[in-house]
Amino acid sequence: MRLLLLAALVAALPFATARAQDAAPPAPIEILADAKAASGDVVDVDIQSMSFATPEVKIKAGQTVRWTNKEEGAAHNVHFRNGPAKTFAKARGPMLNLNEAYAVTFVQPGTYDYICTPHSAMMKGKVIVE
Ligand code: CO
């Protein structure tokens, strides 16, 4: 009888393992479809003079950071290269033209270092999520 139970457990094991692999890991960040419409717990970071005006922000998990390009004549983006979003499929944000915005809700705590892809040497920032 005990042997039968053991056999049943061993038989079920591969299925349990397969199910665990099917479940996608939770996304560390969520990119808002409409950055300008973001409301509530939003921290704004302006982009101007080839820099992120508030290069370091500290927030709580669940809060949103919105970047707005206020610089005429230069497009910029937000590209997470270190931290929980490093391997996220959309870690590299789209280029923002003047007055365009990009908003991200941070789900997973951690330190998210980011750059502007074409100006990586001078445009750096970080979001610390507690
Ligand atoms: Co830039």
Task: Please give a handful of descriptors for the protein shown.
binds cobalt (II) ion, 9 strands, alpha+beta, globular, four-stranded mixed sheet, 130 residues, five-stranded mixed sheet
Which secondary structure elements does this structure contain, and how are they paired or packed?
Layout lengths: L1 H21 L6 E3 L10 E7 L2 E2 L3 E4 L4 E6 L9 E4 L18 E6 L3 E6 L8 E6 L1
Parallel strand pairs: 2-5, 4-9
Antiparallel strand pairs: 1-7, 2-3, 5-7, 6-8, 8-9
The structure holds cobalt (II) ion.
Description:
With 130 residues, the chain is α+β, with helices and mostly antiparallel strands. Helices cover 16% and strands 34% of the residues. It is built from 1 helix and 9 strands; from the N terminus they run αβββββββββ. The strands form 2 sheets. Strands 1-7-5-2-3 form a 5-stranded mixed β-sheet, with no helix packed on it. The protein has a 4-stranded mixed β-sheet with strand order 4-9-8-6, with no helix packed on it. Cobalt (II) ion binds next to loops.
Q: In terms of per-residue confidence, which ranges show pLDDT below 50 for 5 or more consecutive residues? A: none
Give every kind of bound small molecule, once each: cobalt (II) ion
- Percent of residues in helical segments? 10-25%
Indicate the mean pLDDT.
Answer: 89
Question: C-alpha Rg, in Å?
Answer: 20 Å
The biggest beta sheet reads:
5 strands, mixed
Cα(first) to Cα(last) distance is 51 Å
H/E element sequence: HEEEEEEEEE
Computed structural class: alpha+beta
Shape: globular
Can you list the strand order of the major beta sheet? Answer: 1-7-5-2-3
